[in-house]
Amino acid sequence: MLEAKDLMVFYENMLALNNISIKCDDNQIVGVFGANSAGKSTLMYALSGIMLDIQKKEDMAGGERITLTGDVLLQNRSIMDMKPSLRAKAGIILCPERRRLFKESSVLENLRIGGYLATRAEAKQTMEYVMEVFPALIKLKKRLGGFLSGGEQQMVAIGRALMAQPKILLLDEPLLGLSPFMQSTLIRGIKVIQEERNISVIISEQYARPVFPIVDYAYILENGAAVMEGTREELMDNPDVKAAYFGVS
Amino acid sequence: MEILVYGTINSVSLALMGLGFAMVYGISRVPNFAHGALYIICGFVTWTLFQIVGLSYFVAIILSLCVNGILGMSMYRFVLIRVRGMSISEIIASYAIGLVILEGLRFGGFRGMTYTLPVFMEGSLMIGGVPVDYHRVVMTIIGVALVAGLWVFTHYTRIGLALQGMAQDERAAMMLGIDSDFMAMVAMGFGAVLAGVAAILILPLGNIVVESGYHVLIMSIAVCIVGGLGSWMGAFFAAFIIGYAQILTVVYIGSHFQMVVAILAIILTLILKPSGLFGQQKELEERV
Ligand SMILES: Nc1ncnc2c1ncn2[C@@H]1O[C@H](COP(=O)(O)OP(=O)(O)O)[C@@H](O)[C@H]1O
Ligand SMILES: [Mg+2]
Description:
The structure holds 2 protein chains of 2 kinds. Chain A is α/β, with parallel strands linked by helices. Chain A is 37% helix and 27% strand. In chain A, strand 1 and strand 2 form a beta hairpin. In chain A, helix 4 runs parallel beside helix 6 (150-163). The longest helix of chain A is centred in the C-terminal third of the chain and has 18 residues, at 180-197. By secondary structure, chain B is an all-alpha fold. Chain B has one domain (2-210). Chain B is globular. The A-B interface holds A 48, 50, 53, 57, 60-61, 83-85, 88-89, 93-96, 100-105, 109, 112-117, 146, 160-161, 163-164 and B 84-86, 155, 158, 161-162, 164-165, 168-169, 171-180, 182, 280-281, 284-285, 287-288. Bound molecules: adenosine-5'-diphosphate and magnesium ion. Magnesium ion (MG) binds at residues 40-41, 97, 172-173 of chain A.
């Protein structure tokens, strides 16, 4: 349903995404793996439209020139010129790198702000659902976003994104800086959410190992280019991938 | 006792003046230098609708608040949207709009004669042995109620919560479907209405003169800087500090030092704690 075709992004003259084509079908979990500065966040921003805002602000402030070429398609219609708020309305919700919670608002308020696009009934139902998937949040409802641990913050960030009623959830490095235990809790949560809410998920990570068990299809980025792609099984059987991304040979 | 009563009244009126400015800045990061002009134009519009057109006072107030809201929103939609994010241009553009309004009013003939708005209630009462007229009491109550209402609005309504999200992290709000330009326009409309409410509550205590537009702007900036730019609750508390300080100076030093107090408060804050009393955001960032 969401597709990028020959996507290129330049920051001034620096090529951050090099001719990327990726695809995420209905009810699929797609992984995007790559080392630091491989272009994962740039891809997420291009898909969610945030890149247009970055581009506009840079342009206004007389900063760097950002160029995008290629196409982003949602249900086979180009959304390249659609601004982020409209893409969100169409169901593309980005849960950004470093979570970006509203630090001065409580957990409950963070979730309610997330429910901006939801109807009253949807918001109420989703709120209950979030507490069901991440029961750790029940005790933290009143706590300010700025005073949560990394794992708690990530749960709120995912919950907040769910409140916006996504059809495609984009998760940019959701496991960054979390303990292995918290990582597996979140990964299980993400799989449950994908199945129960019938949504698609695109998830980016530096290390493939913790996420790999739940992805249906994955891309491997290096310096802005997709150097490899395939289903979980295909990639798992590939010796190069094993060596580079699982630390075994 | 006198200091307590008049200090409170003065503080609430300062809070009323600054609230709109603080809110607009907090949400859209646009310093609206036309704030004082929006305040004064609401006074003149109400006066015109009431005295010239002959509407009832209540209807005149409602209509002029609507006019202010529309004015605020148009200011954003047609002018400030183009310079958003460039602070200096925002200041110049909004100040220019303010000047056009204020000097336009002066040019248009709103000078010389005395223009006054009626008070809500005649008469006065004694509070702890200090005589206070009813209008000041009403103003204080409405002022406090307005702050409480604003708090409820920003914490419990869909638009209010979205405005809060925008104020804290514009781009994160965008990812959730909140349209930044639309929200900034709403905020500007709200700010203009708040300036109008302040005008209708405060102006009946004196004459409507174009100059007070500049005065209101300076006081708004003062409470916002002391309170911490971007925190409208901070602005509310700062209004009390400056408000009492002003009354103390009036009582012990002399009434023409009032303005000096405000300017001094700005300078002291900028030297001692540039993020202001409630520069929360910074502190939180440092802790995390
Ligand atoms: N705003 C920007 N201006 C210039 N270069 C940038 C900007 N954002 C990212 N880059 C560069 O683009 C490349 C890809 O970055 P990014 O998408 O953030 O990678 P990742 O998320 O995989 O770590 C990096 O080399 C990074 O330095
Ligand atoms: Mg990144």
